[in-house]
Amino acid sequence: MSVEFNHTIVLSRDREKSARFLAGILGLEVGAPAGMFLPVTTANGVTLDFATVDVETPVQHYAFLVSEDDFDGILARLVEGGTPLQADPHGRHPRRINRNDGGRGVYFTDPSGHGMEAFTRPYGSDPASPLNGVTEDVPGAR
After folding, report:
1. Contact (CB, 8 A) for 85 and 106
2. What does each C-alpha distance from 18 to 76, 99, 104, 108, 121 come to in angstroms?
3. I want to staple 19 with a disulfide (CB 3.0 to 4.6 A). Which of 38, 46, 71, 109 is the partner?
4. Percent of the chain scored above 90 by pLDDT?
């Protein structure tokens, strides 16, 4: 049996604002509305269907595995847009990225307060990396 993750619904305060923000940061496109949903589709075909809701939503976490080149663009767009970023999900290392597993990773928040993450190496792919736990300053970051 083959199981693939296909889509998820992202509850947001403003689907347009949240979808356009994430698509812009990740270098993706916002698709045509489908009923109450505004889709953003990743390279592996997973769709994040943004929906506006008029209730307080719990914070969710969405993580994106990206290439080194894509990471450079994502980081540049975060800095250019003045989006606060950090090296960890708890905000203990603001204006920094992490180097876990010999790659690079960054955390940021979308307009609805969801925790977003972009990283270049899957978790645990290099547990012996001397870069695990290392963070680096991002010039110009908020």
Report:
1. yes
2. 19, 27, 24, 13, 25
3. 38
4. 97
